[in-house]
Every structure is written in C-alpha cells, then in structure tokens.
Amino acid sequence: MASARIVIDPAFQVGSIDRRLFGSFVEHLGRCVYDGIYEPGHPAADADGFRTDVLELVRELGVSTVRYPGGNFVSGYRWEDGIGPRDQRPTRLDLAWHSTETNEVGVHEFMTWARAAGVEPMMAINLGTRGVLEAIDLLEYANVPSGSTLADQRIANGAADPFTITMWCLGNEMDGPWQLGHRSAEDYGKIASQTAKGMRQLDPSVELVACGSSNRRMPTFGSWEHTVLQHTYHDVDFISCHAYYEEKDGDLDSFLASGVDMDRFIDSVVATADAVGAGLKTDKKINISFDEWNVWYNVRDKEKNTIRGLDNWPKAPRILEDVYSVTDAVVVGNLLISLLRHADRVRAASLAQLVNVIAPIMTEPGGPAWRQTTFYPFAETARRAVGSALRLTLDSDTHQTAAYGEVATIDAAGSHDPETGNTSLFLINRDHGGPSTVEVDLTALPGAAVQDAVLIADDDRHAANTLDRQDRVTLGQLTSYTLDGHRLTVELPPLSWAALTLA
Ligand code: AHR
C-alpha cells in the first residue's frame, strides 16, 4: 500500500487564496449560453429568460468570476452586435465553432445574469480581428457613467449604472494557429501593449490579462511568454495559462498525474515572467490567470463535432458535451490542488466551461439541470479553501508515469481560514490499484477535530451522471480515518479525491 506523510502548520503559508481562483467561463459555444444559462420559455426561466435552476447550481458550485464571451468565439465577435433592441440585432456566422450567432444574449444580458449569479464578470476583447479602438469603445460603453455617446447609448439600452467591469482579457489564445487573426508573439505583444495603454488611459482601475500559451506543448511555449511580456510587462497584471487534460491511449497513470503537468506549467510561466521582470529591473510581479483549465476529451470531440458546409451553421449545436466520470472528477480535484499550491502567483483561474460545454452543469431544453461528477470537487474546494493556502510538507511514495516520469502517488494541498480557525486538507490517491494511507502530523493544530470529510471514489471509475441517472455519482462521506492525539491517519480508497475540514 502506498503511503504519504504530511505536516500541516498554519504558520507556513503559500499566500492568501484569491476568490478569483474559483472562476469559470461562459462562451458563445454550443449550448453554453443558448439552451444553457439562457432558455426563455423553460418552466424555470426568469423574466429575462435565464434558467433559475441553472443559476441555483452556479451559486452552489461557488463560482466567483465568469469569463465571457470567449474563447475562440471572441476573435470573430463584434460586441456592438449584442446591444440594443433584440429584434434588430444581426445574425452572424461564428467561424470558430461553425455556428449561427443570433446575438440574443450580449453584454447587457450577460451582466444581468452575472448579477443574478453573484459572480464577477471577466470580459474578453477581440484582438484577433479587431483592435485598440473597438476595445476602448467597449470599455467606455461598459464603465463610463454617462456623458459620452457610448455611455449614453448604454443608458438608453437600459443600464443606467455603469457595468464597472474590472478584469479584461486582451484577446484569446493568440498563439494558436486555429485562432482567427492568430499573430506572432511580437505582433501580439505590440497590439496587447497598445490596447492595454489605451484602456488604462480611459479607466486606470482595470486589471488586464495578456494571452499566454494555449498549452505547455505549444511549440512557442516559453518564448511566447517571454516576448509578449517584454512588450506588455508594465501594462498588464496577469499572463494567462490554458490547459486541458484527457486520458489518452488508455494511459491512466499519466492522466491521473495531470496535476504534475499543471505544476510544471505554472512554475515555468512564473520563472519566465520573473526573468523578464528581472531584465527590466522592476520589482513588479506578473501573476497568472489560469483562465481555461479542465478535463476535455478534445480528440474524441474533434472526431464527433465536424460541422461543415456553407449552408450548415446550426444554432447552439450539441458540441463539446463531455460526460465526466469519477476518474475525471479525481483529476479535476487534483488540478485544484495544483492551483491552490500556487495561490501566491495564480491569482485567478476559470474552470472551462460552466454549462453543457465541457462543464460541471448539464441541462436539457425544457428539462432538468444536473451536476456532473466534476461539480463536486470544485464546489467542495471553493467552499473549504478559504483564507490562506498552506505550504505543506508532503513526503509521498512515488510511481512511474509515461508522460511525467516519477510522480508522487498521493498529492495534497491545505488551507487555513483565520476567521473561523478551520483548516482544510485536500488529498488525492493516484493509485488506481489499491488504497493508500496518509499520516498527517497535526502538532501545530492542538485540539483539532475533524469537522467533516468528503470523498469522490467508486468501484466503477467510469461511473458518470447522465440525463437518465443524474445522481449516479454524488459526494460520499470519508469515514476511513482515525485521530489519535496529534496524528491523523487517513486511508484513501483507490483512485480517489477527498477533502477534510479540521475545526
Ligand atoms: O473552451 C473551449 C475552447 O478551448 C476555447 O474556446 C478556446 O479558448 C480553447 O481552445
């Protein structure tokens, strides 16, 4: 049986946990917006056409920020299409997803939804096929109280108060050849810097994210960040990371070690950003916005979702609707552990996406909304990881993986909330062949007692929630632990994720 020893001490901290770490993403893609968050005519729709059953699940998920409107979609998007009377809005072809965009939902509707959901908006601008002026126009439209044509247009369109959007992404995945208007790092760095300067001239309070790499395997990874930050270091606050993981060719061990890839990705981007900062002789630090991450069966989706043809542009097609298993939930739990471990530099992150499209929440038109397996580790981590992320001492047995070499069999992160005094521990067992034991030294937490402990594990690692069986996988109770003085011993089932809160 594999084992690990952990020492947890609230005095040793990585940094405060920014609530923005628990963000998500709503793109005009497939059924995320239409027939997802928005379905007028659904029995649970509110007066604005938003599904209240979905809103309830979004609140339960504990999402803090929501990135919008894309994604690849944003690189062909004209934000002006989505304002004004709905019956006069143009119907456009979305080249990114080969779909029809009716523009029924635009910035006003999204802001109404975001307020109802209690989330902070994170707006992406189009730097693929548009430029500085369109970005400034949108910012003026959104954030200037009144007195300019654009601000007054917003008021005339029904929003008397400014939207006050703080976080802005300067384009999306501009390093990717699939991106409309894909640019070299040099070209993107220049336009991102010009756009950022212009936006700050208008509203100095904005927080800006420059595009980093679309994943760690991109041929330009590393040099992209270096070049882009040389152009934008003084203009932006964040550089983005995107990463999706899937079980490839039956290599379960490597898939279960996806968190190792995320760790290495973050460490490399931090090192690159700090190297650029050192070269510029500045003390300013650039943080990471990990604004797309998840499990995504990308290869499988590419084969399935081939919408083509000049006369075939479906509205809200069922694409990227991955059904997540117990295995996927454990990996999502591990990716959250990685984000927490880097809470000092990863100050924002977005689970991509929120509804129907590679999402923790699924819906049927006119029918129910339900939680996928991945909903649970996200909701539990968002709820428990409050205060500061802890620097744990973790000494785990290891095993070999094809993709990442030798990896720890047990991974962990911890948090401490000074308000309540509660300490939480997040654990995964990457051993799918048997249980593992974890011994936790609680000497620094005298009198600590386990308040509650939850678990994701199943005899069938492929078990999933579907329309027909929406609660096949739910959160279990972890009971296999003993507390003896300052020593907590936890037995983790094979291939499992667990969270314990100590009061
Ligand atoms: O989240 C799905 C897609 O993945 C996004 O549109 C894009 O940014 C990324 O490649």
Textual characterization of the structure:
It is a single chain. The protein has 503 residues and is an alpha/beta fold. The protein folds into two domains: 18-384, Alpha-Beta Barrel (TIM Barrel); 393-502, Sandwich (Immunoglobulin-like), CATH 2.60.40. The protein contains eleven helices and 26 strands. It has helices at 52-61, 107-117, 132-143, 149-156, 185-202, 223-232, 252-256, 258-279, 298-304, 326-341, 375-384; strands at 2-7, 13-16, 23-25, 65-68, 92-94, 99-101, 120-125, 167-170, 207-210, 238-245, 287-295, 346-351, 361-363, 369-371, 388-390, 393-396, 398-401, 405-408, 410-416, 423-429, 436-441, 450-456, 476-477, 481-484, 487-492, 496-502. The chain has an eight-stranded parallel barrel, surrounded by six helices. It is globular. The protein starts with a strand and ends with a strand. Bound molecules: alpha-L-arabinofuranose. Alpha-L-arabinofuranose is lined by residues 27, 29, 70-72, 172-173, 214, 292, 352-353. Residues 27, 29, 70-72, 172-173, 214, 292, 352-353 line the site of alpha-L-arabinofuranose.
